[in-house]
Amino acid sequence: MHAADQIDVELDDGMTVMVKQKPRDIPATRMGVGACLWEGELLLAAYLAAQPRHRYIGQRAVELGSGPGLAGLMLAMLGAQVVITDKDVVLPLIQENIELNGLPSTPGTSKHCGGSAMAEELEWGREGYMGRVAALASTPVDLVLAADVTYVDQDGQSPSTEHFVQTCKGLCGPQTVCLVSFELRSSQVKEVFLRESGREFSRVERLSKSALPKCYQVEHIELYKLQAVEAPSSQQLLELGERVRAEVPVLHQLVHGHDLVYLDNAATSQKPRAVLDAMNAYYEEYNSNVHRGVHSLSARATDAYEAARHKVAAFVNAATDREIVFTRNASEAINLVAYTWGLNNLKAGDEIILSVAEHHSNLVPWQLVAERTGAVLKHIGLTAQQELDVEQLKSMVNSRTKLISLPHVSNTLGCVLDVPAVVAAARSVGAKVLLDACQSVPHMPVDVQTLGADWIVASSHKMMGPTGIGFLWGRYDLLESMPPWMGGGEMIQDVFLDHSTYAAPPMRFEAGTPAIAEAIGLGAACDYLSSIGMDTVHAYEDDIGTYLYNQLAAVPKVTIYGPPPTAPRGRAALAAFNVEGLHATDVSTLLDNAGVAVRSGHHCTQPLHRFLGVPASARASCSVYTTRADVDAFIAALKDTIAFFEEVGSM
Predict the structure, then answer these.
(1) Which of 257, 561, 567, 611 is most enclosed, with most CB atoms within 10 A?
(2) Beta strand 254-255 with 492-495: parallel, antiparallel or unpaired?
């Protein structure tokens, strides 16, 4: 890249960014190479280009140590307001590239979705540099970009790396995302970067390059995402449940003359007003089909539908929106994988490892696939603490193991899977990993790029969104390799009388008119949960879940299934339980008479209940709107229920 004075970089949609570089005219202090385009900058630009254009419209971004400024220029052409920074000697080159691409310095006056760019001096480590950082951060920054800005100085060290990380932190608010891309020139520099980033940021994540073109999937360049998420105060956590509860209409009603206490959230969650309003707005203001018309209503509906896909992708930190496939629910998402990847990759004698705790939706599809392919199903059991036995799994994997499909969080036991250990075991034999994330995505931060699985599935209705829609996330290279499983409109590329060619993912798997309003509602649910912050949601539910467990455990004759909250990975905010001498349905019926809604039955985990030696259980499960008052009302009603049966002699 050092040879040409000007390089034209084409985006996937035909947009071209023109970049001039001056490696000889602007020499670096130690490296001997000046303002030129490095591979890390190209990879960062490719990552930005892989996102849908609307993602960055109106966002404010700062690029650090930009050199020619490719990533910042590209972001501005995608609609962001970008400040491109470097040493003062590089600013004329940056300004030349800004003008070369026709970008104004004022937002909203550009043909490029209102994007703008301006060049400003910033050199970290220089005296007074944090004052300049504070000035840049005086207006909230959505995105910080940095590529190849940490180099080896004398003796293999990089003292500038510490100043660089401090600069990133100074620019970041609680919602800011910092993307850092660099070539692995020195293990010492990487160690310093990770150490300092770990000190300054609450999240340091290495991003996958699997969704990028093959030429960018190189081992010697790494891409990181840094975020400084603020922990909520104890007072904020205390108030959160009541605040969210006030925004959920269905919770404000009487049931049998009692205030509703809704503790059936593992079955389905209630919906905030924001989700209901988003769906109503679609039907009342721009109801139209998507991807099929050029008129204004269709364009608006299409934008809203694809914006929802983007919101889901961002919610689980997918590398690209193209990794999100909308389905009817998580059951359909698992069936999609089973009938595309499964039927095309499994053969007689291959092994699929599941558990005794599977929801039927992650069991029956694989039974059907095994019947058709001759594959063999294996099942891991539980530990003494009633967690999934990962040590048993490690002993079961072998060269015949092709898939491990397990719940991230059990809907009955509440146990949290040791995902890193499962992924490591799978990778040791080349097996794939699918996670049923229905009980984790609504309740804790889930980052698909750090989990290491190949697919995850989730349902909208469990995450404060509408029924009728869920999603599959899959690594894009895997999705590309999977054939269609339903035919119809929209999933095609070209149709002839005797054959058809098919669209790329995700459209390949979304035949026919989709659930448009439901997708928009799911997007609104992602917005709503994100506005609270999934770290905050998890902290709140960890507290309310522990309170539920402890209060329930103190009730005589009650058995709770699953590990205690003190387990290494904790437990979810749910409790499946039985009362000695009583059937779960009888308990749940009397609780309903007191206005308390809990689940009774086998919770779509019949094999697990057989394993536990019980026909059924009752289950109380929390959400972010569950309060301690709800738990107290449940416990009081449960004690009254037990007292009633004792009085009539039914125990």
Answers:
(1) 561
(2) unpaired
Question: pLDDT value at position 108?
Answer: 64
Given a contact cutoff of 8 angstroms between Cβ atoms, the answer to whether 184 and 153 are in contact is no
In terms of residue numbers, what domain contains 578?
A: 237-269+534-648
Burial class (CB in 10 A: 0-12, 13-18, 19+), 379: middle
Rg over CA atoms, the chain: 27
Assigned token pair, 43: 């990879």
Q: Kindly provide the b/e burial profile for residues 560-596, where b requires at least 16 CB atoms within 10 angstroms of the residue's own CB.
A: bbbbebebeebbbbbbbbbbeebebebbbebbbebbb
For residue 244, count other CB atoms closer than 10 A to its CB. Answer: 23
Is 254 in a helix, a strand, or coil? Answer: strand
Q: How many domains does the chain have?
A: 3
Asked, for residue 375, whether it belongs to a domain, the answer is yes
Domain limit, last residue, from 471, 497, 531: 531
Tokens 């009342």 found at? 284
Examine the domain organization and report whether 520 and 544 are in the same domain: no
Residue 143 belongs to a domain with what CATH number? Answer: 3.40.50.150
Cα 467 → chain centroid: 19
- Torsion sign, CA atoms 24, 27, 32, 35: negative
Shared domain for 69 and 218, answered yes or no, is yes
Identify the domain boundary among 531, 565, 580. 531
**Cα gap 310→147, rounded to integer Å:** 24
Specify whether 26 is located in the same domain as 38: yes
Residue 542: which CATH number? 3.90.1150.10
Query: Looking at the domain assignment, is residue 146 inside a domain?
Result: yes
> Does residue 328 share a domain with residue 253?
no
pTM: predicted TM-score of the whole model, two decimal places = 0.78
SS3 (DSSP) at 473: strand
With beta carbons less than 8 A apart as the criterion, state whether 148 and 190 touch: no
- Residue 1: inside a domain, yes or no? no
- Same domain? For 243 and 302 the reply is no
* pLDDT for position 54: 66
Which residues are catalytically annotated? 604
Low-confidence ranges of the chain (pLDDT < 50): 1-2, 28-33, 152, 154-158
| Lookup result for tokens 């203001």 | 285
Judge whether 504 and 480 are in contact, CB under 8 Å. Answer: yes
Secondary-structure breakdown of the chain: helix, strand, coil percentages, each rounded to the nearest 5: 40, 20, 40
* Residues 507 and 546 grouped into a single domain: no
Tell me what pLDDT residue 30 has.
44
Amino acid 159 reads P
Contacts 24+ apart (CB under 8 A), 453-458: 453/419, 453/423, 454/478, 455/333, 455/337, 456/316, 456/408, 457/327, 457/330, 457/333, 457/334, 457/337, 458/316, 458/330, 458/333
- Tell me if residue 578 falls in helix, strand or coil: strand
3-class DSSP assignment, residue 411: coil
Residue 427 falls inside a structural domain: yes
Q: Among candidates 537, 530, 526, 556, which has minimal Cα distance to 622?
A: 537
Residues 6+ apart with CB under 8 A from 550: 565
The Cα–Cα gap between 422 and 260 comes to 40
Q: Which residues contact 591 (CB under 8 A, 6 or more apart)?
A: 597, 598, 618, 634, 637, 638, 641
Q: Tell whether 502 and 547 lie within a shared domain.
A: no
Among 566, 554, 551, smallest CA distance to 622 is for 551
Residue type, 170: G
- Looking at the fold, whether 180 and 75 belong to one and the same domain comes out as yes
